[in-house]
Write a structure and sequence with these properties.
Elements: H1 2-11, E1 16-20, E2 32-40, E3 45-54, H2 58-63, E4 66-69, E5 72-75, E6 79-81, H3 86-97
Antiparallel strand pairs: 1-2, 2-3, 3-6, 4-5
Length: 114
Amino acid sequence: MLNHIKNLLKSLKLIFRILLLPSHDISFTSSITYDFEVYSVGQKMWLEVSSLSNCLDYQSNNLNIKYKKNNKIKNCHTLNGSSLSIPRILASIIELYQKKTNIEIPSILLPFYK
């Protein structure tokens, strides 16, 4: 999941960073959380565009999702990911690709442009 988001942001040629959040900044349901942030030149700040978490078995315990291994029944571990926040990605694309008279379309998106 980390590589998927990283590859999406790289393909859009956006300036981004990945943060491993400290325990006091993550939800009690998560064991680990990564935030992806894109730099906004206009706002001069980093904006979160994605968040990925491993919730271990917290969610699967509540949902009663289990698996069997070596004749033992265990709760699954769950992962949460928000892919990309569309409004912030669009704002970042506009900032990065804005020209005097138009907004250039990132080359990776050209096959979808009509």
